C-alpha cells in the first residue's frame, strides 16, 4: 500500500471538486444563498488537502514546497493582510470575513495562498517523457473539469432568461422565476448559480478566453484543404476533431450566458481578453500563414450571439435583434399634450433595469472609499471592515440614489477595497502580485512563443487580465479568487518556470520501511486527521448554526418573535462566538419582551412580566457586550437603537438609552439619512424639540425626498409653535410645518393621506 500516492490522489481530486462544485453549490436555507456555501465548501476542501499533504509529508519524511516566481510578493501580501488584521477596527470580522460572505477575511486569504502552494508542490511533477519539463496532465484535467462546470452553470442560467429557472424548481418545485424578488429577476439579468449577474460575468470572463485558446489549439494539427469562396481561396479543416466541437459549444454557451448577464464590466473584460487572445494568435503566427478558418468561426459566433442576445450598451444594443423587433412592434408616439411634471429633487441617472445607474452609485462609493483611506493610509481599517469605514465617510449624495439605505460592505472595486481595508501596504503588495506575474509570464512568452502551448498561456494571461478588469468595477468572489491565485501557477507550469523546491525534513523512525509507515508516523497521520476532522466538524456546526440563524432572522422580520427565539437560541448555542447571531438574538429578545407585555393573548400577566424583564435584561446585556467589544461596528449601534426604542414602548425610561445609542450611531455614520432621522425622532420624543428639529432638518437636507422625515419635521414645527396649553405662540413654525406637508404632497407622494390630514389640521390653526 503506497499511502503517499493515495494522499496525492486525494489532493488531485479535491482540486477537481474545487473547480467543479464551488461554482455550482448553493443552499436555500442559509443566510446567504450562494457565496456563504461556496466559501464553506472551499474551506472544507482546503482542510482535506491539508490533511492529505501533511500525511504525505510525514510518510516521506520531508515536506516539499516548490519555489515559484511569486514567492516574495505573495509573502509580502500575506504579511500586509496579517498586519491589517492586527490593527483592525474589528478583528473578528477581519479574521473570518464580513458575515455572511466571509470571502476576503484573513482565513480565506490563507486558504488561497495555501491552495497556490498545494497545487504547485503536489500536482506538478517532472515529465517522464522529458525530465527537463513538468507533467501537465493534471492541469489539463483541471481545465476540462472547469469547462464542464461552466457548461452546467450556463445551462442552469440561460433558461431563466426565458422565465424557466432551475433554482426555483429546486427550492419551490415550480419551473419559473416566481421565487425571486421583482428587483432581482433573472429574466432581466441572469445570475445562474453564482448569485449575482456581475459575478456570473466575471466567471465567464475567465472561462471564455481559455476556451478560445483551447479551441484554436485543437486545430493545430488538423490537415487543411483550400476552398474558393467569392473567388477567394480560404483554408478550412479537412476533418474536424470532437474536441473542436466541444470547445465551440463551450464558447457559445459561455458567451451567451455572459450577454444575458447584462454585466457591462464582464462584457468589457471578455472583449479585452478575446482581443488579447486573437492578437496573441496573430503574433505567434506572424511568420507563417495564419489559418483564417478558426478566427473567422469565432468572430462569426461572436457577432451572431451578440446580435441575438443584445448588450447593455445603448449604442451597440440598437443593432441587436430585440431592439429591431421592438422598433417594428412599438406603437406610434402619442401627440396628446402631456401634463407638466411636478418639480422634484433632481435624481441621479436612472439605470436600464430600474433604480439609479450602477456607475453613478459606484462613483459615490469610490468617493467615500477614498475619504476613508485618507484617514487610514498605511495599514487601512482592517480586512473586511469596509462597511464600518465607509459609513463614516459616506457621501451625502448617496441618499439620493435608489440604494440610499443599502449596506455597502465592499467598495465595488477590489483595488479600492484593499486600499481602504489594508492600506497602501496591502494594495501595493496586491498590485505587485499582478504586475510581477504579467511581467515574468509575458517576458517568457516573448522568448518562447513557438511553444505548442503558448496560445494557452495567452488565454490564461487574458483571463487574469479579465479578472483585474471585473475587479476594478466590482469585487472577487470565491471562484474568481481561486482562479486569481491559481492561474499564475498554471502559466508558470506551462512555461516550465517551477524548477526548484524547498525541503523541510521531518524526523523518521530508524526501522521505517519505504512502503510501511512506522508507528510514529501513524500517530502523526492520525493526529493530523483527527484535527482536520474536528475542524470540518466545526465548519459543519457553523453551517448548521447559520441555518438556524437564517430561520430566526427571517421570522423576526415578519414579527414571529416567539418562533424566532428558539432558532436564534440554537444558533448562539452552536456558535457562541459569532457576534451577528448574538446581535439578532438581542433584537429578538427586546421585541419578544415588548410583545409579552403588550400582547392581547397574555394569559398570566405576572409570568409575562417576569419573562419580559428577563428577556429585556438579556437583550441589554448582549448589546452592552457587543458595542463594548466592537465600538466601531455601526450595525450593532443601529441594533442598539432598535432594542432600546422597542423596550421604550412599554417603559419610557429606556428612551434615554435609545437616544444615547442614536447619537453614537450618528457619529459613526453622519450622512446616513435613516440614522439621522431616528436621532431626530427620539430627540423630539425625549423632549428635546430643538435638537429633534435640527436632526430632521439635516435629514431632509441630505435626503430631500425622505417622506417620513418631512412629516416628522412638520409635526415638530407644529409642536414648537404651541405653548403648554396648546395655543399658537409662533405662527412662523406653523407655516414651516405647512411647507413640509406641501413639499411632501407636491414632490414626493401626492396621495399621502397622512400628510393630507396633517395639512388640513394645520390650515385650521
Description:
With 765 residues, the chain is mainly alpha-helical. It has two domains: 61-325 and 412-505, no CATH class; 546-763, Alpha Horseshoe (Serine Threonine Protein Phosphatase 5, Tetratricopeptide repeat), CATH 1.25.40.10. It has 29 helices and four strands. The strands form two sheets. It has a two-stranded antiparallel ribbon with strand order 1-4. Helix 8 packs antiparallel against helix 9 (242-261), helix 16 runs antiparallel to helix 17 and helix 23 (634-648) runs antiparallel to helix 24 (655-668). The longest helix is centred in the C-terminal third of the chain and has 39 residues, at 519-557. The radius of gyration is 30 Å and the shape is globular. The termini are far apart. Residues 338-344 and 346-354 have low confidence and may be disordered.
Amino acid at each position: 500500500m503506497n499511502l503517499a500516492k493515495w494522499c496525492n490522489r486525494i489532493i488531485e481530486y479535491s482540486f477537481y471538486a474545487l473547480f467543479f462544485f464551488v461554482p455550482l453549490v448553493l443552499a436555500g436555507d442559509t443566510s446567504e444563498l450562494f457565496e456563504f456555501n461556496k466559501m464553506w465548501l472551499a474551506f472544507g476542501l482546503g482542510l482535506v488537502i491539508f490533511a492529505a499533504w501533511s500525511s504525505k509529508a510525514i510518510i516521506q519524511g520531508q515536506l516539499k514546497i516548490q519555489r515559484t516566481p511569486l514567492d516574495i510578493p505573495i509573502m509580502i501580501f500575506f504579511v500586509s493582510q496579517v498586519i491589517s488584521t492586527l490593527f483592525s477596527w474589528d478583528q473578528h470580522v477581519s479574521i473570518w470575513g464580513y458575515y455572511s460572505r466571509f470571502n476576503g477575511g484573513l482565513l480565506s486569504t490563507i486558504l488561497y495562498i495555501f491552495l497556490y502552494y498545494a497545487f504547485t508542490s503536489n500536482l506538478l511533477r517532472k515529465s517522464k517523457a522529458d525530465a527537463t519539463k513538468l507533467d501537465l496532465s493534471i492541469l489539463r484535467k483541471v481545465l476540462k473539469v472547469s469547462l464542464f462546470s461552466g457548461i452546467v452553470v450556463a445551462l442552469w442560467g440561460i433558461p431563466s432568461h426565458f422565465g424557466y429557472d432551475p433554482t426555483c424548481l429546486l427550492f419551490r418545485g415550480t419551473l419559473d422565476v416566481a421565487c425571486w424578488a421583482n428587483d432581482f429577476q433573472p429574466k432581466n439579468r441572469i445570475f445562474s448559480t453564482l448569485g449575482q449577474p456581475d459575478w456570473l460575468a466575471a466567471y465567464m470572463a475567465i472561462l471564455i478566453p481559455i476556451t478560445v485558446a483551447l479551441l484554436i489549439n485543437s486545430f493545430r494539427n488538423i490537415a487543411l484543404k483550400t476552398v474558393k469562396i467569392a473567388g477567394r481561396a480560404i483554408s478550412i479543416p479537412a476533418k474536424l476533431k470532437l474536441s473542436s466541437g466541444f470547445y465551440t459549444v463551450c464558447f457559445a454557451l459561455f458567451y451567451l450566458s455572459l450577454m444575458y448577464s447584462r454585466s457591462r464590466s464582464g462584457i468589457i473584460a471578455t472583449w479585452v481578453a478575446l482581443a488579447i487572445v486573437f492578437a496573441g494568435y496573430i503574433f505567434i503566427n506572424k511568420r507563417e500563414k495564419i489559418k483564417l478558418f478558426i478566427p473567422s468561426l469565432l468572430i462569426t459566433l461572436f457577432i451572431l450571439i451578440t446580435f441575438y442576445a443584445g448588450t447593455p450598451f445603448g449604442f451597440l444594443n440598437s443593432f441587436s435583434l430585440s431592439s429591431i423587433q421592438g422598433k417594428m412592434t412599438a406603437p406610434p408616439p402619442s401627440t396628446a399634450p402631456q401634463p407638466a411634471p411636478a418639480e422634484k429633487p433632481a435624481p441621479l441617472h436612472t439605470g436600464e433595469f430600474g433604480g439609479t445607474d450602477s456607475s453613478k452609485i459606484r462613483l459615490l462609493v469610490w468617493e467615500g472609499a477614498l475619504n476613508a483611506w485618507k484617514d487610514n493610509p498605511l495599514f487601512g481599517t482592517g480586512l473586511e471592515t469596509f462597511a464600518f469605514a465607509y459609513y463614516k465617510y459616506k457621501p451625502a449624495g448617496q441618499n439620493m440614489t435608489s440604494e440610499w439605505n443599502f449596506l455597502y460592505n465592499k467598495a465595488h472595486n477590489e483595488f479600492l477595497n484593499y486600499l481602504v481595508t489594508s492600506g497602501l501596504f496591502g494594495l501595493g503588495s496586491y498590485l505587485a502580485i499582478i504586475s510581477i506575474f504579467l511581467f515574468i509570464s509575458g517576458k517568457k512568452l516573448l522568448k518562447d512563443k513557438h511553444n505548442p502551448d503558448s496560445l494557452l498561456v495567452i488565454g490564461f494571461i487574458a483571463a487574469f487580465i479579465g479578472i483585474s478588469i471585473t475587479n476594478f468595477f466590482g469585487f472577487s468572489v470565491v471562484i474568481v479568487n481561486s482562479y486569481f491565485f491559481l492561474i499564475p501557477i498554471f502559466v508558470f507550469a506551462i512555461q516550465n518556470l517551477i524548477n526548484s523546491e524547498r525541503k523541510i525534513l521531518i524526523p523518521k523512525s530508524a526501522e521505517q520501511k519505504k512502503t510501511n509507515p512506522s508507528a510514529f508516523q501513524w500517530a502523526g497521520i492520525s493526529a493530523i486527521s483527527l484535527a482536520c476532522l474536528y475542524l470540518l466538524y466545526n465548519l459543519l456546526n457553523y453551517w448548521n448554526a447559520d441555518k438556524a440563524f437564517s430561520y430566526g432572522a427571517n421570522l423576526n422580520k415578519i414579527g414571529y418573535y416567539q418562533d424566532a427565539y428558539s432558532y436564534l437560541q440554537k444558533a448562539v448555542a452552536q456558535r457562541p462566538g459569532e457576534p451577528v447571531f448574538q446581535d439578532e438574538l438581542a433584537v429578538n429578545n427586546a421585541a419578544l419582551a415588548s410583545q409579552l407585555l403588550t400582547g392581547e393573548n397574555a394569559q398570566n400577566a405576572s409570568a409575562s412580566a417576569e419573562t419580559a424583564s428577563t428577556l429585556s435584561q438579556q437583550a441589554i446585556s448582549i448589546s452592552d457586550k457587543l458595542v463594548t467589544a466592537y465600538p466601531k461596528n455601526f450595525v450593532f449601534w443601529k441594533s442598539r437603537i432598535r432594542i432600546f426604542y422597542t423596550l421604550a414602548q412599554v417603559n419610557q425610561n429606556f428612551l434615554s438609552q435609545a437616544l444615547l445609542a442614536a447619537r453614537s450611531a450618528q457619529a459613526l455614520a453622519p450622512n446616513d439619512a435613516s440614522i439621522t432621522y431616528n436621532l431626530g425622532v427620539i430627540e423630539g420624543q425625549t423632549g428635546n424639540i430643538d435638537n429633534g428639529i435640527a436632526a430632521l432638518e439635516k435629514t431632509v437636507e441630505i435626503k430631500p425626498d425622505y417622506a417620513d422625515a418631512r412629516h416628522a419635521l412638520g409635526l415638530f414645527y407644529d409642536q414648537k409653535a404651541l405653548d403648554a396649553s396648546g395655543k399658537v405662540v409662533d405662527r412662523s413654525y406653523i407655516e414651516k410645518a405647512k411647507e413640509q406637508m406641501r413639499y411632501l404632497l407636491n414632490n414626493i407622494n401626492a396621495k399621502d393621506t397622512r400628510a393630507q390630514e396633517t395639512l388640513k389640521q394645520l390650515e385650521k390653526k
